[in-house]
Every structure is written in C-alpha cells, then in structure tokens.
Design a protein that fits this description.
The chain is of the alpha/beta class. Helix content is 48%, strand content 13%. The protein contains 27 helices and 22 strands. Helix 2 packs across helix 4. The protein starts with a helix and ends with a helix.
Length: 751
C-alpha cells in the first residue's frame, strides 16, 4: 500500500473515533514507516543481519536512543519475515508495531496479522535488554505464536520460548530467560504467586517483569480484569455445614426473604430472611462479625440458587462443576467460583463437596500487568473500551486502518417475540444457505443452546460440527475449516479466536462465510468479534443476528421495558432500543469493575508490602526487631525460613478475613456506620496487627532458640508450609456496596 493511501484511511479511521484517547497524528507514523522502507537489506546474508541487530543492541545498552534504532531493527525484522516466513509486512503492521513500541494499544482488524505486528516491538524490546512477554488468550496461541515466529527472532540472535499450564519449574525458568516468552496471560501471573511462596531465590522462576505485549487486550485487560488468580494449599476444613445451609436456602422465597438484582448480579437477604435462617440453623447474630463465616456460606448458597443456571453458567461433567465463561461460552478449566460459591454449587447439584483449600495468594490480571515496567497491547475491538484502557492502564488507542476495504455485509437483525420462533427461523436460514453449499458459522451463547441447535439441525438432515469446550488446537483446527463449501459449524461466540478461517474453493462466489449469531450480547464488542469471523482481509462475507425478546440479555436486564408499546418487531426503533440497552449494560459492567478495583486496591497495596518484606528476607534483610533478637549467626537461615513461613500464613489468614469482612460489610449501614470507611478501618487494622504479630512471634522464637533450636521450626510456630499447592482462577460475582467516593478519597491520600 502507498503511504498516501495509508494516510487517507488512517485519517478516516481517526475521524470516526471521536473522544477516543489518541495521542499521535498520522504524520509521525508515516515518517517512521518511510524510514523503515528506505532500508533495504535484501543483499545482506543472514550473518550480516544478525551483526547489524547486535550492533544496534550494543548502542542502545550503551545509552543510545531507542527511537534512533527503531527503523533499523524493524527493517531487519521485516527482512527476516520475508526470508524465514515468506511474509511481506504491510505498512499497517509496521504502524501497529510502532504504536506498541510507544506503549500504546493498536486496534488491528481481525485477520490483518496482529501476530506478525507484535514481532517488531518484541524484537526491539528484546534487543534493548528487556525480557519481553507476549501474553495471549490461551496455551494453544502461545505455542503457535512462539513456534511460528521463532525463525524471525532467531535471525536477529534472539531466543523465543513458550510455556503452558503443563510446563514444569525447570521449563518455565528456562523460558523466562529467553529474550521473548509467549504465554497465556494467566501463566506468568500464577508464577508470580508461586514465587511469593518460595523459600529461596533459586526456587523462583520469573525474572524482572520488564515488558509485556498483550494480545486480545479487550478479553485479557477488560473482560478478565476482575478475575483473580489464586494459589491455594492443602488445609484441613469442615464442609459439613454447606449441605445443611443449602437445604435451608432452598426454602427461602425470592421477594420475601431475599432480593435478586440481576443487573448488578447481586443477591441480598432481607431481615425476614435473616430471621428465618437463624431459626433454621439454631444460631444468632449471623449479621454480626462473629457470625461472618455462616453469613458467607448463606450468601454463597443464595448466589448458587438465584444467579447461576446449569448448562448456561456452568456444566456438570464427571462429577464436577465446571464454569462456562460468560464472554466466550466456553467451559473453562482451572477456574472456580470464589470463596464458597463453588462448594455451594456442588451442594446444589448433589455432588461431593471439595474443600476450597487455604488461599495463600491472589492477584487480579489488572494488578499483575501493572507490575511490568512497560506495557503495550493489541486487539481488533478496542474502541468500545478505549476510555477504560486509558484510565486503567495508561494505554492510548491507535486505530490501524485495514489493509483492504472491508467487503463484509452486516445484515439488519431479525427480531422475534419468542425464542422458539427464533430457533425455527435460524434452522430454516441455515438450511437455505447449506442447500447452496455456502459455509455457515453459528455463534451461540451457551452450551445448552449450542447442543439444542445441533440436535435440530441433525434431525433436519444438516450435518454440522458443534464446539462448546475450551479453546485448544482441536477447536482451532475445526474453526479453520469452517470456510469450506457446505460446512456448518456451531460454536461459542469467539471460537478459534486468533485462527484464520480460509474460504474453500469457489466459496467467494457464493458470498463467502455466513456468520449467524443467535443472541445479542451484553457487550457490543462481543457482537463485533463474532461478525469479524467473516470478511477477513477484504474477502466477501455476511453476518446476521437472530434474536428474541426471551433471550438472556432481555430476561436478565428487562430490555422489553425499553421497547415502545405495540411496536412492530421489525421497526428500526426496536433495534435502536436494544443498542441503547447494550450501552447501559456496558456502563453497569464498567461500574462493577471500578467497584471491584476500588476495594481490591487496598488489598493489592498490602500484597505488595508483603512481597517487599519477603524479597528483603530472601536477600538476608529481616525486620529490625528480629535482627536484634536472632543472636547466633548460625541460626540465620532458620530465622529467615521461620519469618517467611509466618508471613505466608499471616497473609493467608488475612485474605480469608478480608473476604469475610467483604461479605457482610454492607450491613454496617443498619448500625449507622459507613460501610466503605468500616471496610478500610477493619482491613487496615487487621493488616497492621497481623504484621506486628508475625514479628513478635518470630522474635520470641529467636530468643528461645538459644536453648531450644526447635523453637524456630514452622511446626513450633504453628505455621507449617502447605504439603501441596495448586493454582486456579475465580469468578468474582459480587461488587461491594458502599461509599466508593469515600474510598477513592482515602486512596488518593496515599500518594
């Protein structure tokens, strides 16, 4: 593409994004792209290219400006792409790479080559001496990206590696010491938590978190931002009361004993419900601090029964409850609901109740990526969340124009009064397209609906592939074949994300891939991502949504209330009201995320303090009180281990206390107190007192160790290490209800 054409399209893209945080005009990108294109290394051999890259790295590490070396490094990487992959980088990919090097978020259209675009800033960052992490949505994409782009990195003298959930400590340690490491975003986060439980520096696997490039940023940094990563250890626990509480909660009546707020995804007991539960359980004061544990169990059971539905929010397989991701419709492995809700669901379904284990550490994805010195990102759908990207991550959005004009046709939605009418119409439409051999990709929102539609199609004699499991290589392979003549693929809405759907022979003449959505979603960007499966790189294609007023979106948020009385279902005003409802829902989700971030911020500040104390201890620096009491230098290693074990156990206890406080803090308003300020006071006081207790107990053990060396053992201190640990993600369902303004004022006073 010529630069003047790029300028025209880029300017048009910017003009359609009013109000989006964009810091640069096209001229700066155009100038740099021109500098890159002016460098021709086609006559240099591989060794010469590697030498040029090495020389650039030396200049940067000697204090040279990265901006001066960017055209050279990008031009070398482009030549490596031609030689090793047979791919000629587009100007648009270079623009995206420049934006990411500058610490911005590049919006790159689906199918426009984000994987190659990320190689340019990754190469420059790695040559600068930073370990670069390319964070993706899942293990499959991490392996694919590392394997695919490894020859390019290799020609520049850089090593690329990947890790997955199955990678062991040695493999992880080696991968993180590569110049470029590709991983599902959760994996470095879990390693961060594991490192915080290590007894020595040698056991840790991560090195400094220098630079991260986040792919699928809307999913990882927005949708998944409030999903904490957790490390837990084996611990004794009693789950006998879970079943008993489940039986009591089954007898409660919605609207009389408790209220359900489906928009905010909250459930709250009324005073009548409190009284009924206390009578049934034979306890008093569950709303008081002493009854926090029982109250938490009751609240979890209410969530399980009132807000979560089988085969929509979760499935039961092989005797286990497995969550379904609300954004992708996939069954998600290594995830469970938070703080008692998982056990409550197991009781609801009559399954064996597993112990939660003792939580030793937790961090949200937003807080984890905030640990990187430099952050960049890319996605196909940044605009709807651009303000949040800027406010929460400091990422300005740069809209990269498509290489070729989009030829896809997005047909108007078809709206039905009932779900049954909608499903019959969907089957008829697929039958019509299949008769003409046009491939169809059908996006559904739940396991239940995908299986129901697959059954209907098969009964009509229409063969189909149905996917509703987690994304992996098998799913990506099936989705990649969804563009063949006559193919009918039923999948979750984001199936095969990151996978090209190539049109089969003659399919372009049939109109290309036909994408049908069976529901509009809570977020418009999910709708856009589904549409983006068709019409990639200027290919033909079309999309259409079939929706009904009985769909989950309408039932959960009461959207029919928005609709004008007596309006015809095909009236444009109806679809306009649906769009307005989506904007309202997106705003609600944003407020929920902000609420969760607000109260999580206090815990994150405390977590960083604990991490600082651990790191200091691992390097031999203990609190002054313990230093003065430890006496014999030969005891130093044992004192360090005693302090680490005590600190870890304190933090585990503190996390549990925080959750107990959070569950019942809203009741403080009945006592005339501000719940937000009470939360701050309780959590802050507990943290300070806990740290003092750790130092006091270890100091006392040091004094006793002269006569009894066993006094420093974890067993003597009552802080044994867990015999095993495991990691998982939890779904945070309940935003806390209190005065967020008071908390925000308090947090600002800290800085």
């Amino acid at each position: 593409m010529k630069l003047r054409d790029l300028r025209t399209r880029f300017a048009h893209a910017l003009s359609t994004a009013r109000g989006i945080p964009i810091k640069d005009e096209l001229r700066s990108y155009e100038r740099i792209v021109r500098e890159i294109r002016a460098l021709d290394f086609s006559d240099r051999d591989d060794d010469a290219l590697a030498a040029l890259a090495g020389a650039a790295a030396e200049r940067i590490r000697a204090g040279g400006e990265e901006r001066r070396e960017l055209p050279l490094v990008f031009a070398i990487a482009a030549e490596a792409s031609r030689r090793r992959l047979g791919l000629e980088p587009f100007d648009e990919q270079l623009v995206a790479g420049i934006a990411m090097h500058q610490g911005k978020l590049a919006q790159v259209q689906t199918g426009e080559g984000k994987t190659l675009a990320a190689v340019f800033p990754a190469c420059l960052g790695a040559l600068c001496g930073r370990g670069v992490h390319v964070l993706t949505a899942n293990d499959y994409l991490a392996r694919r990206d590392a394997d695919w782009m490894r020859p390019v990195y290799g020609l520049l003298g850089l090593r690329a590696a990947s890790i997955s959930a199955e990678s062991g400590p040695a493999e992880r340690r080696s991968a993180y010491r590569a110049e470029v490491t590709c991983a599902a975003a959760r994996e470095p986060g879990f390693d961060c938590l594991r490192d915080q439980l290590c007894g020595t520096l040698e056991e840790q696997v991560l090195r400094d978190l220098s630079m991260a490039i986040v792919d699928e940023a809307d999913s990882i940094l927005i949708d998944e931002a409030r999903v904490p990563l957790v490390i837990a250890g084996a611990a004794p626990g009693d789950t006998a009361d879970v079943g008993r509480i489940d039986r009591v909660v089954r007898g409660l009546r919605s609207g009389e004993d408790y209220d359900v707020d489906r928009e905010g995804r909250r459930v709250s007991l009324r005073l009548e419900g409190h009284a009924r539960i206390e009578r049934a359980l034979g306890v008093e004061g569950i709303h008081e601090e002493a009854g926090a544990r029982v109250f938490a169990r009751v609240h979890a059971a209410l969530h399980a029964h009132a807000l979560l539905s089988r085969d929509v929010d979760y499935v039961v397989r092989k005797g286990r409850v497995e969550p379904v991701d609300e954004f992708t419709g996939r069954i998600v492995e290594r995830r469970q609901w938070s703080w008692g809700i998982q056990a409550a669901l197991e009781a609801k379904e009559g399954l064996a109740i597993r112990r939660d284990g003792r939580v030793y550490g937790s961090i949200t994805m937003q807080d984890f990526v905030g640990l990187y010195e430099r952050l960049a990102a890319m996605t196909a759908t940044a605009v709807p969340s651009a303000e949040e990207f800027a406010g929460s991550y400091g990422l300005a959005t740069v809209i990269v124009p498509a290489v070729k004009p989009v030829a896809r046709i997005d047909e108007p939605d078809v709206v039905f009064a009932t779900r049954e009418e909608k499903l019959r119409a969907v089957v008829r439409e697929i039958d019509r397209a299949h008769a003409g051999q046009r491939p169809v990709l059908l996006g559904t929102v739940s396991v239940r609906e995908s299986e129901e539609l697959a059954d209907r199609l098969l009964r009509c004699g229409i063969p189909c592939e149905a996917l509703n499991a987690r994304q992996d290589a098998r799913e990506a392979g099936l989705v990649s074949r969804a563009g063949r003549r006559g193919a009918v693929t039923i999948s979750t809405n984001m199936a095969g994300r990151g996978t090209d759907i190539r049109l089969g022979e003659g399919v372009a003449g049939l109109g290309g891939l036909y994408v049908i959505g069976t529901n509009r979603h809570e977020s418009r960007k999910i709708d856009d991502q589904l549409r983006g499966r068709a019409g990639r790189q200027g290919e033909p294609g079309s999309t259409r949504f079939f929706i009904s007023l009985e769909d989950p979106l309408f039932e959960r948020y009461g959207v029919p209330e928005f609709l004008p009385g007596g309006a015809a279902l095909d009236e444009p005003r109806v679809l306009g009201e649906i769009d307005r409802a989506q904007r309202i829902i997106e705003a609600q989700h944003h407020r929920i995320r902000e609420a969760l971030r607000t109260y999580a911020r206090l815990v994150e500040l405390d977590r960083r303090r604990v991490r600082e104390l651990r790191d200091q201890a691992l390097h031999g620096c203990l609190p002054s009180g313990i230093e003065a009491a430890r006496g014999d230098p030969a005891l130093r290693p044992r004192v360090v281990q005693a302090f680490l074990c005590s600190l870890d156990c304190f933090w585990a206890d503190h996390l549990l206390l925080v959750e107990d406080i959070k569950e019942g803090i809203g009741l403080e308003r009945f006592a005339g107190r501000d719940p937000g300020l009470e939360y701050i006071r309780r959590v802050g006081s507990a943290f300070d007192a806990g740290l003092e207790g750790v130092e006091r107990s270890v100091t006392e053990a040091c004094k006793q160790a002269a006569e009894n060396p066993g006094a420093l053992s974890p067993e003597a201190l009552g802080v044994p290490r867990p015999s095993s640990t495991w990691t998982y993600q939890v779904d945070e369902l309940t935003p806390i209800r209190f005065d967020l303004a008071a908390m925000a004022k308090w947090f600002r006073s800290l800085f």
